[in-house]
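User: Can you write out an input/output pair for a complex, sequences first and structure second?

Assistant: Here is one pair. Inputs:
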Amino acid sequence: MNNAQFAPWEDPAAKPLIEFKGVTKNYGTFTAIDNIDLKIYPREFFALLGPSGCGKTTLMRMLGGFETVTKGSITIDGEDMAGIPPNKRAVNMMFQSYALFPHLSVADNLAFGLKRSDMPKSEIQGRVEEMLRLVKLQKFAGRKPHQLSGGQKQRVALARALAKAPKLLLLDEPLGALDKKLRQETQFELMDIQEKTGTTFVIVTHDQEEAMTVASRIAVMDDGKLVQVDTPDRIYEAPNSVYVADFIGDVNIIEGGVSNVSGEAAELSWSEGKPAIKGVSGERIQKGSSGAFAIRPEKIAISRDKPVDVHNCVQGVVEDIAYLGNMSTYYVRLDNGSLIKAQTANSRRIARRGLTWEDSVWLSWTDTAGIILPT
Amino acid sequence: MRKLSWFNVVSLTFGFAFLYIPMVILVVYSFNESKLVTVWAGFSTKWYGELMQNEAFLDAAWVTLKVAVISSTIATVLGTMAAFVLVRSGRFFGRTLFSGMIYAPLVMPEVITGLSLLLLFIAIGMDRGVMTIVLAHGTFSMCYVSVVVSSRMATFDESLEEAAMDLGCTGWDAFKSVTLPIISPAVISGWLLAFTLSLDDLVIASFTAGPSATTLPIKIFSSVRLGVSPEINALSTIIIALVAIGVITASIASKRAIVRQRRDEQVAR
Ligand SMILES: Nc1ncnc2c1ncn2[C@@H]1O[C@H](COP(=O)(O)OP(=O)(O)OP(=O)(O)O)[C@@H](O)[C@H]1O
Ligand SMILES: [Mg+2]
């Protein structure tokens, strides 16, 4: 999936499946979606990530045809979607609330859409069974939705949306109620389906690990706006703002002023009388303006003695240690009062060194380990 | 079983006596040999036989049934539609006024409803008969249906309809195959309510009935004014029996449904 060949967004000639042009959605005076431009390409697995209430469901509902667009336009496959009702769109949606039909059995729920498609009657039964197998609910075909557990309901909803094999599938938090093992299985199942059918997926999730696993690209949203749309590794390695860096994964933020920018590299002065931190220059930073240095905990090395040959090193005191099995996280307090997290794999070497509370330590990282972002 | 205190026994006895003694008397005298309602002259079913010969009563009964079925069906269709619009179309200009107007006939004295309908029928030159009673009953019982249905609609999860549309239904298809089956208990009880209201109605019917069609309540009421005959007792006994059978069947059916649902839920666990 994340192989180098599949990157239609890099190709200016590629035709997007979905295109948002200046889309705004108002509910009365409240702006839920604020002037969004976005292209999603065929066969993409596109993940929407963002805090609760930032407009993810609203974006999906506009694609599905359940909400009108206040301003701007949405095209699917080159066709303007304004005024086209949900049943005329080659889109299926899995609702956040599942929306299973309570008066129908599981099998009838799955057959509901098929009966209204041009699938011959004789094939419907087979397709329903195939979907039941997919979500491992063969034994539950005759049950009514109220006789299912939360996770089982979720799987029925997923299967129902998948059954018609639509061109575009919208999944609003499809796996939230599943346990970890089943969730991983279903994730791979989804990726598998995607590979087999070529369906384009747009998926809302609160689980960034999930987004990282399944998505070809991730859009990070905040307050009705798209903050960054990029591949998972770029989102993680090169966030375009402190917001994104902070939202995805664990990060240390050191604030200061940008003292130097030269091409890919930049420097941030952060504490009186200390050498500036060197890092990769983020987008839109300017010498002399304020900035922040962002670095992932696993990229910081921790040692008792001052490392040689490394420019970026700071001294501090171990305040807390969190043992996570394969990893340990050290919370180190710097002289200027900020708290930095450093993570190390628990190889024997470190364990023998026996760093403990109140130890004075050195934190260090390479010049390309962190990124300097505008604030 | 708890033993009832003497106080409870007494209040229970008096309460039920108060409710049922009149009916018991009515039933007992329907089997009276004598024509005099207050004198017992031995057991007989002859009044039932005579009732079966009485064309006027049979006609009235038939009219009543016809009116009740047709008017409650019309009321159910219209009332459901009104409920749907009021619950679904969100805020539109005059919505509060409309929903208030739907409920107004519930509190309006029947005499006024009847009179206004009578005036309307006269004004448009409509001959009074079965048709006018049906229209009148349909109009006022529609409000009851709409109250019952809209309280159910208010708690209906709209995303179910959206899901249906998403899976290829048109709006009407979604209503028919998802919304209606789910709200059907409310629609059915609305129909039953309209049906009983129509069976029961005397005031509005007497304004809107004409010489060509009389309903049973009107017939009974007018013949009682000429003196209570044992035939009326017989007729009333039959009605009581029918109502009792209806109520008992309904309660057994609903109890069965509850038991079935419990069993289903236990299977689910
Ligand atoms: N019908 C509506 N009327 C008014 N405001 C609405 C409506 N639907 C959503 N909103 C508002 O729009 C904003 C975005 O809602 P949305 O449901 O898209 O959030 P979300 O990102 O899906 O959140 P979550 O992760 O909690 O599901 C919220 O602030 C919400 O209150
Ligand atoms: Mg949502």
